[in-house]
Amino acid sequence: MDAKHPVRTTEKTLALVEELMQKGPCGVTELAGDLDMGKSAVHNHLTTLQKHGYVLKDGDDYRVGLKFLEVGGHSRKSMEVYQVAEPEVKSLAADTGELANLLVEEQGMGVYLMRAKGDDAVDLDTYAGLRTHLHTTALGKAILANLPESRVDEIIERHGLEQKTPKSIGTRQELFQVLEGVRERGYAIDDGERLEGLRCLAAPIKSSSGEVLGAISVSAPASRVSDEDLHGALPERVLSAANVVELNINY
Prior knowledge:
Elements: H1 8-23, H2 28-35, H3 39-51, E1 55-58, E2 61-64, H4 67-77, H5 80-96, E3 99-106, E4 109-117, E5 131-132, H6 138-144, H7 149-159, H8 172-185, E6 188-191, E7 198-206, E8 212-221, H9 227-230, H10 233-250
Antiparallel strand pairs: 1-2, 3-4, 3-8, 4-5, 6-7, 7-8
Helix pairs in contact: 2-3, 5-10
C-alpha cells in the first residue's frame, strides 16, 4: 500500500541506498547524475548515513555498510518460521547433497531467509535477503498456490509477470493453471524458470489455520535431477521437511 503522505527526504535517502546496493561503490557526482539530485544534497544524505554506520566511505566512493546486515539479521531472527525451519533446511541440504532454501513472501515478493549447501551443491546467486518474483521459483509458486486468488491478482498487478528465462510463466492464465497443479500435488516445481539449467522443488509451510508461512526447497542442476526425481523420492523428502517445520510451529 502506498503512503498517503510520503516523506521526500526519506525517499531520497532510500533511493541512494538502493542505488549503492545495485551499482556498488559510487562517488557523489555519479550518484547525483543517476538520481537527478544535487551533489550537495547527495553528499548530505551520504554523510548522515555514514555517521550512523549504514554507509562507508572508501576514498572518494561510498558503499553500503554492514549495519544493514545487523538490521536484517535481527528481523530474521525474530521470525518463528526461520527459527524452526533452520535445522530442517540444513538437514535437507545434508541429506540431498544439494542446495536447500527457505523463502517467505513480503509485499508480494519472495525473500530468501536462508540457504544451506550440501556436499554437491552448486553456488548460485541467491543469498539471505535476496528478493525475487514469486512466479519464477518453485518456492514462490508453493506460496502463491496457497494464497487467495484475489491476493495473487494483487501481486500480479503490483509486480507483473517478468520472464527471467524463456521458460518463465508469462500470463495470468498460465500461472493459475500451474498453481492448480501445485495444489493437487502438494509441491511446486521450477524447471529453469529463474535460472536456465536449474531445477527446484518446493513445499509450502502452513500454520494450523491454513495460512502459508513460507516454503522450503531443494535446487540442483538439471543434469542431476531427472523427471523421475521430480515426482519420486525428492518431493517426499522436501514434503517431509515442510511437515516437520509445520508440526514444530503448530504444536
